[in-house]
Write a structure and sequence with these properties.
Length: about 150
């Protein structure tokens, strides 16, 4: 029952992030993640989806896609956007910008906490430019350690 492939597509609008957060939170809880891990997973998804909406979408109609894979050992989530290069060069994620963002962001910076939080709280965090010129963010949460599971 724990093995599942789930696909969701939401409009690129903040309004839809909360329902996604609730769905993933319930799924993680039912998979056996502890309450703290569920909250961490929800926070990470919130940050990644916010980025997909704010930085990776031209407008609300393009949508953000989520591919969720659950197993007895892990919860894996891919968040895919289509990019916002038409909004201006600043928001267009190039390979150079990607490495700049990944190395320069830290808690001491005023903005730019999203990626830092997502990287810190997930077991695997991978950010890639996809075929549409948008961004694919893949995070994995392992369910291996007894401390992570529900009492
Ligand atoms: N999906 C994305 N598409 C394009 N650029 C992105 C995407 N996600 C992040 N970025 C770029 O990476 C930068 C850092 O993202 P991060 O979430 O760490 O900070 P932020 O969104 O700017 O601010 P915060 O999340 O703290 O409100 C963003 O400002 C944006 O330029
Ligand atoms: Mg952000």
């Amino acid at each position: 029952m724990a093995n599942a492939d789930i696909k969701l597509k939401i409009p690129s609008a903040v309004f839809y992030i909360d329902p996604v957060r609730a769905f993933i939170g319930n799924l993680a809880k039912n998979l056996g993640f502890s309450r703290k891990r569920v909250a961490d997973i929800q926070l990470v998804i919130d940050e990644i989806c916010s980025n997909a909406v704010h930085h990776g979408s031209i407008d609300a109609t393009v949508g953000v896609e989520l591919q969720i894979r659950s197993s007895a050992h892990a919860l894996e989530i891919l968040v895919r956007d289509t990019g916002s290069r038409h909004k201006g060069k600043k928001n267009w994620l190039t390979h150079e910008r990607l490495s700049e963002i990944e190395t320069n962001r830290s808690p001491s910076n005023e903005g730019g906490h999203g990626i830092f939080i997502a990287k810190s709280l997930s077991d695997t965090y991978k950010m890639e430019i996809n075929a549409t010129g948008g961004t694919d963010v893949r995070v994995v949460f392992q369910l291996l350690k007894p401390a992570d599971t529900k009492p």
